[in-house]
Design brief:
Layout: H1 2-14, H2 23-34, H3 37-57, H4 62-131, E1 135-139, E2 145-148, H5 151-156, H6 160-163, H7 174-190, E3 194-201, E4 207-218, E5 224-233, H8 235-257, E6 261-267, E7 273-278, H9 280-286, H10 298-301, H11 310-320, E8 323-333, E9 336-348, E10 351-358, H12 360-371, H13 373-382, E11 386-391, E12 397-400, H14 402-408, H15 412-415, H16 429-442, E13 444-453, E14 459-471, E15 474-483, H17 485-520, H18 526-540, H19 545-556, H20 567-570, H21 578-584, H22 587-595, H23 606-610, H24 631-645, H25 657-667, H26 674-689
Antiparallel strand pairs: 1-2, 1-5, 3-4, 4-5, 6-7, 6-10, 8-9, 9-10, 11-12, 11-15, 13-14, 14-15
Helix pairs in contact: 1-2, 1-3, 2-3, 2-4, 3-4, 18-19, 18-24
Length: 701
């Protein structure tokens, strides 16, 4: 306004051409700058009006002043427009700058938030790593620990600081190390994390099962810088798995031994129920070979079930679980004919098991019972087997037949209203316990062998079958017992006869051995001595009881082949000719030809056939060497030669024990097995050191 006033003053005082006219443009500029562009235009109008009025007031002619007025107007207007344009550009620039500043501020805030979030995330991850029960670690490509979480102390007993700089692979069980290294190399090659179960060494020295997840870490250049490890203690889980495996083995053993049939099925992707397993009892009960039915749908494996509800029942059990039972399933499709009691249950989702027992005979008996009570009563009373009916609740006898009286000696009056425990019928309480358990679990028991006490105190053996039946609405036990006492006695007598026969065999062998000694004019008791010493050696060298039986027989008959050698050669006092030696050396072949035709002596051939083989392969008849020679023959060769050397013979006196010992040592590795020689010499040293009364007395076979 001051500039406007100065402009008016200049115009009034000096006219249109005064220098002070410049105050008008200055007023326009200041109005636009200080107020806004609209004020600048209004100031243009005010300045023009003041310019005209003040110029005319000083007496200037309008016509003369018109060019000045127009020029002055456009000058002011140009100034205002320029100022408006500049102001607009400035406003745009300021708006852009403000927007840029706002975006920059937003980016700064976003980065601050991101950094704060990252710091919080890092803190969270560190808290997790420091406080998680899992074991967290970082290792370099060579397995050196760079970071170890405190949980290593809790789980494995190691202080994290002690592990830093050590090798993680040193904690891995040696048997698992190659497997773990393979996974580490694979993860480094393809960049994918790996998970592996391994045994990790505890600070106590024990090994725990751990599940370790390893993720490769790469630096900015893409090079492998190490692995991030997360480990979890699965020792209890592994123990549970091992226990489950043992349980599964036990379950399978039970299934294999179960007297009831077992069928196993699984559902395939198409919903078909596939036959996948069975037990030996299933073959026996159905009289077929189930192996040919494996992996077939149930309708194809067992066509007799195709039109029944059973396939769908089984399918629902495999899907939803539960238990389904049927006391009677009739099956009639060649070659299977019969009635069966069936129980089905889910083994695992998609798999089910059917357990069945053949109740054909039981069904027939029940049907016969329903048809004619009189016939049942007659059969019951006249059965040669013992039949009795007891209440399930307390075991009290309800009825017995004549067979029971013949078997046990008790009349109906003796037992009705009493229990078997009151009468002390069971000799072994465990037999009764097995009967009760079977009835509780299956409702019946078949072929239970048990000992019983008769009324007169005699002990007998019976073969029992029992079933839970219902009489007048009350559960009862129907028991049938067959007296097998005579059969058991016959079996015992047969075993005794077999033992006597074995003794006769042994006596015959001893007779043969003695006959050979007499024929060869052998030292008395030579066969007995070498047999006893050979058996002692065989035990020391780990032979089984079954082996010892055959070794004893082979030692007794070691020279049985000499029966085929003519007396003029066998008993010749002088040296044998080469031709005579050929015949003499055939006696192992004669022994084989004689004994291999006798089945129970065939396993005893090792000594008669091979005791002239030598460790270095120079023996006969086969030229065997070292461990090609049966162990029994190697043992006997040492014992036989030692006994022969230390015994008087018609053609030479006995050697001293020292001379015989020296000979064995000299021939060790040539004639004899060095290990057998060593054990034999130790044995005779023990015998020499033992007191005379503790040594076994000489016996005569």
């Amino acid at each position: 306004m001051i500039c406007f006033g100065l402009g008016v003053y200049g115009t009034l005082g000096f006219g249109f051409l005064s220098v002070m006219l410049l105050f008008y443009p200055l007023a326009v500029i200041l109005a636009g700058m200080l107020i806004n562009s609209r004020a600048a235009f209004w100031m243009v109008a005010g300045c023009m009006l003041a310019y005209v009025v003040s110029g005319l007031s000083v007496g200037a002619a309008l016509g003369d002043a018109l060019p000045y007025l127009i020029t002055f107007f456009f000058a002011l207007l140009g100034i205002a427009l320029l100022q408006w344009y500049a102001y607009s550009r400035l406003q745009q620039a300021l708006a852009a700058q403000i927007e840029a500043n706002q975006q920059l501020q937003a980016e700064i805030i976003r980065r601050q938030h991101a950094e704060q979030a990252q710091e919080e995330m890092d803190a969270t991850l560190r808290r997790l790593a420091e406080n998680t029960t899992d074991l967290v670690a970082e290792i370099d490509p060579n397995g050196i620990f760079r970071y170890v979480s405190p949980s290593y102390k809790t789980t494995l007993g190691y202080d994290p600081h002690d592990l830093l700089g050590s090798n993680a692979f040193d904690l891995v069980h040696p048997d698992d190390l190659a497997h773990v290294l393979g996974h580490a190399q694979a993860a480094a090659a393809d960049g994918k994390p790996r998970r592996v179960a391994l045994r990790t060494k505890h600070s106590s020295g024990d090994y725990l099962y751990m599940e370790v997840s390893g993720n490769p870490i790469y630096d900015a250049s893409g090079a492998l810088s190490g692995f991030a490890l997360s480990s979890r203690d699965i020792h209890l889980q592994k123990q549970a798995e091992f226990a489950l495996q043992a349980s599964e083995r036990k379950f399978r053993n039970i299934i294999e031994a179960l007297p009831m049939g077992v069928h196993i099925y699984f559902l395939d992707d198409a919903g078909n129920l596939i036959f996948s397993g069975y037990n030996p009892a299933a073959d026996a009960l159905l009289g077929i070979d189930h192996a040919a039915l494996l992996n077939k749908p149930i309708e194809e494996a067992f066509p007799g079930l195709a039109e029944t509800e059973i396939p769908e029942r089984y399918r629902q059990i495999a899907i939803h679980g539960g238990v389904w039972r049927s006391e009677r399933v009739d099956y009639s499709h060649h070659p299977i004919e019969g009635a069966y009691e069936v129980s089905a249950f889910q083994e695992s989702p998609g798999r089910m098991v059917a357990v069945f027992s053949d109740i054909t005979q039981r069904i027939r008996s029940a049907e016969a019972l329903r048809v004619s009570e009189e016939k049942f009563s007659t059969a019951f009373m006249t059965s040669p087997d013992s039949v009795n009916i007891n209440r399930l609740a307390d075991g009290v006898y309800i009825d017995i037949n004549q067979g029971f009286t013949r078997l046990m000696g008790y009349t109906r009056e003796d037992v009705i209203g009493k229990s078997s425990l009151e009468l002390s019928i069971w000799v072994d309480p465990n037999d009764r316990a097995r009967l009760v358990k079977g009835l509780q679990e299956k409702g019946f028991v078949e072929n239970l062998e048990a000992r019983f006490r008769r009324k007169n105190g005699e002990i007998g053996v019976g073969l029992m079958s029992a079933k839970v039946i219902v009489i007048n609405g009350e559960p009862c036990i129907l028991s049938i017992t067959r007296d097998i006492t005579d059969r058991i006695q016959s079996e015992l007598e047969l075993r005794r006869a077999h033992a006597l026969l074995e003794q006769a065999y042994e006596a015959t062998l001893l007779g043969w051995a003695r006959a050979l000694e007499l024929r060869e004019r052998e030292t008395a008791n030579h066969s007995y001595r070498v047999v006893e010493q050979t058996l002692r050696m065989a035990k020391l060298l780990g032979c089984t009881e079954a082996d010892l039986t055959h070794i004893k027989r082979g030692a007794l008959l070691h020279d049985i082949g000499k029966l085929g050698v003519p007396d003029e050669i066998l008993l010749k006092p002088g040296r044998l000719t080469p031709d005579e030696w050929v015949i003499m050396r055939q006696h192992p072949e004669f022994a084989r030809a004689l004994l291999e035709e006798i089945e129970y002596l065939r396993p005893s051939l090792d000594i008669p056939y091979c005791h002239h083989e030598k460790w270095d392969g120079s023996g006969y008849p086969q030229g065997l060497k070292e461990e090609q020679i049966p162990l029994a023959a190697r043992i006997f060769a040492v014992v036989d030669v030692y006994d022969a050397l230390t015994s008087n013979r018609p053609y030479r006196p006995a050697w001293s024990e020292a001379e015989a010992r020296r000979y064995l040592i000299e021939q060790s590795g040539a004639h004899f097995d060095p290990r057998v020689v060593q054990v034999f010499l130790s044995l005779i040293d023990q015998d020499a050191a033992a007191p005379a009364e503790s040594q076994p007395p000489a016996q005569t076979p």
